Amino acid sequence: RAQKSLREMYQSDSGGWASSKDLRSHLGNLESELLFLSTLTGISIRNYSMKTEVLTNTEKTEKSITKVLQRHRLSGNCQMITFQLEFQILEIQDKESLSSVITDLNIIMEPTEYSELSEFVSRAEERRDLLMFFRSLHFFVEWCEYRKRTFEHFKVGSEVLKFKHIQKVRLV
Question: Could you write out the DSSP letters of every residue in 43-66?
Fold first, then answer.
């Protein structure tokens, strides 16, 4: 949904906006969608930039094909884990269809105490799969929270048992 909104914004940007009120309204809609996605996933995007380059066709057979290379860079966090992504999307449009493919993906993460997270990152980079990265990051953080709460539960339980044991010893 967000990708569709960004594509519509990109396409409508070249045509201009009817008024600044339309632009503010559209920007408000995008901000509310981003807030909704951040609340839903726990992933917060802090910075984002995109550069677009239209690739020229040199072959006669490809004159009717348009290729656009988009270079994206974003940074954000999911709970306590900070990340930065750099990726490229190649869009190829001919008369009948439009296809997009991620041609490069680089994930940079600050070192954490969670070494198993690097496996998710490596796999996502190899497959150039952004959805896999975001989904894995979301579930990884969610499970870390579950483990933390479980550990706290047992820690509190063991402290209660110690306290009861000390009281029994004092009574005897």
Answer: EEEEEEEEEEEEEPP-SGGGTT-E
Cβ neighbors of 138 (< 8 A, separation 6 or more) are 41, 42, 43, 78
CA angle 83, 84, 85 (to 5 degrees): 125
Q: What is the distance between the alpha carbons of residues 38 and 121, in angstroms, rounded to a whole number? A: 20
Q: Backbone phi, then psi, for 79, in 5-degree steps?
A: 60, -115
Tell me if the pTM is above 0.90. no
Query: CA torsion sign, 152 to 156 to 161 to 165?
Result: positive
| Order of strands, sheet of 66-78, starting from the edge strand that comes earlier in the sequence | 43-55, 66-78, 81-93, 98-109
- Distance CA(111)–CA(107), nearest Å, equals 12
Angle between helical axes of 2-15 and 20-41 (0-180°, round to 10): 160
pLDDT tens, position by position, 121-158: 889 999 999 998 998 888 888 888 888 888 887 777 67
